[in-house]
Task: structure prediction
Amino acid sequence: MAAYGPQSVKAMGQAFDEAWLLIAQNFGSPEETEIARLLLAEAILSVATKGSCDVVALKSDALHALAMDYRCRAQTQITGNNGRTRPL
Result:
């Protein structure tokens, strides 16, 4: 488990807020919105390193990680568990 200093936590919070402003309109229901916010927070934590204070890099890396996660989820839904493409 990583320990983050006050500046890192502040940068992660700012990166989250800025990233959320960019993607919030893509989610409709309260449930979908809450899931997206949790996934964004997890993405920020996954890209943050001890001492991370670069808000732009945190935001960019987290949005990239989130996009890759959604792409993987969509691909899994399309192909299913057996790897064969199935209709949507």
